[in-house]
């Protein structure tokens, strides 16, 4: 998205995560880092071989320019807003906030509602996630598969939507079986 967007809105509920996102944009004087962390560089190296991304002289500078201050908000608040996003991404959100199938589906619906008709999107989900623990806090998850994703996207997407399970042995944590990627366009 970075080469083509004049502004990027980051919606995040957690104050700690908003601080992290702001630090990724603005850098961190304590660690003498200008812009986002170096662990993102391999990602950019792959993207820079593609049209549009290869034209970016300095991805960190472009990131600083187009990423707005992270907005405090909930995925579910998007259902009440007027569709306004020209493009959208959602990663590991709707299935990672609940054990309820209905609430998972509502989260996906709210995200899709925020997109303008015809807007391209990409979403990623953790397949068969069992949730996770951070310290003493247990975080819920909805066990989903590609059929659940297709059902949740439902009538919001054009028939050309691409939903696939990514085949990788590199899992970022225990408690899930793989990644599901869905990409396409919101129906006109």
Automatic annotation (TrEMBL):
**Which InterPro entries does the annotation name?**
NNMT_TEMT_trans (IPR000940), SAM-dependent_MTases_sf (IPR029063)
Give the UniProt keywords, A-Z.
Methyltransferase, S-adenosyl-L-methionine, Transferase
This protein's source sits in the domain of life called Bacteria
Q: Which GO terms describe its biological process?
A: methylation
Any one GO molecular function term: methyltransferase activity
Q: What is this protein called?
A: Methyltransferase
């Amino acid at each position: 998205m970075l080469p083509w967007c004049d502004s990027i809105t980051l919606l995040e509920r957690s104050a700690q995560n908003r601080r992290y996102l702001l630090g990724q944009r603005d850098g961190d004087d304590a660690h003498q880092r200008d812009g986002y962390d170096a662990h993102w560089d391999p990602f950019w190296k792959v993207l820079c071989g593609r049209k549009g991304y290869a034209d970016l002289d300095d991805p960190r500078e472009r990131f600083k320019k187009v990423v707005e201050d992270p907005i405090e908000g909930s995925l579910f608040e998007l259902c009440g807003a007027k569709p306004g996003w020209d493009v959208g991404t959602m990663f590991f959100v709707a299935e990672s906030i609940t054990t309820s199938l209905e609430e998972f589906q509502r989260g996906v619906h709210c995200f899709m509602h925020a997109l303008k008709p015809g807007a391209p999107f990409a979403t990623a989900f953790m397949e068969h996630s069992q949730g996770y623990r951070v310290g003493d806090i247990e975080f819920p998850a909805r066990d989903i598969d590609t059929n659940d994703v297709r059902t949740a996207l439902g009538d919001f997407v054009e028939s050309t939507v691409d939903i696939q399970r990514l085949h990788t042995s590199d899992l970022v944590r225990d408690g899930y079986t793989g990644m599901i990627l869905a990409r396409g366009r919101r129906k006109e």
